[in-house]
Amino acid sequence: MIKKIFSRPQAVIGIILIAAVVICAVFAPAIAPNPPDGIDPSLKYHEADESYPLGTDQLGRCELSRLIYGARYSLGMSVPMMLILGALGLFIGTLSVCAGEKADRIITFICDVFISFPSLITAIAVISILGSGIQNIAVAVVISMWAWFARTVRSYAAAEMGKEYITAARISGCGTAGLIFKHLIPNILPQCIVYMSTGVASAIIMISSFSFLGLGLPEGTAEWGAMMNEARTGLYSHPEMLVYPGICILITAGGFNLFGEALRDALTSEGGI
Q1: pTM metric for this prediction
Q2: What is the mean pLDDT of residues 254-258?
Q3: If you count Cβ atoms within 10 Å of the first and of the last residue's Cβ in the chain, which end, N or C, has fewer?
Q4: How many domains does one find in the chain?
Q5: What is the pLDDT at residue 267?
């Protein structure tokens, strides 16, 4: 299975991009040439040189250092959010198909209500109520995206319900909990991992969007969306300050999307999806 995944070019490219971002996030203090929050007005928009490889921003802070540290926020927030969403989606989605027709209709209706609103709009509404901050952003993302995960998992679980091993488990007296945790989840987990891997890219873009709109992390935080928001003041004179964090978002989201697509193709070829 692993060999089949890595025989696909998009998987290799995706892993390389993800690994590069992970290395930056983990080893940021060793890699960054300067402190990310070192303000020096005398170095405002300093040109690139050996000390500042990508120059400095409007406050004289090292652009490269801030980009490197920004990987910590993007991965440190999006990956845990996807784990929470994955666990929530697995539980609700499998419960929906196992708890009876009435419960399935209720859960499906609730999911449809949430899905009818764009995720970004829902998340912005939640943040406007709760306020900015890492915890509130996490809550907003989970509230705005849980229904999509639950609905997707439900479709995977519903496809499994008609198979012989499920019928055999029911005949043997397996209860709802046993059916979910012993049979359904182990068999749909690979498909869910594929969906989660592409979901990380969506979460990264959403988190950056919040910061770009001024609804995310506190001003001055070395986070890619926040950096793009601050760079708007010098859009015409120094457009590169807006381009650099945009490229970082593109690389990270693209890495997870490419790897997720490779996983899906590998599972599809084996009849897993």
Answers
A1: 0.84
A2: 91
A3: N
A4: 1
A5: 72
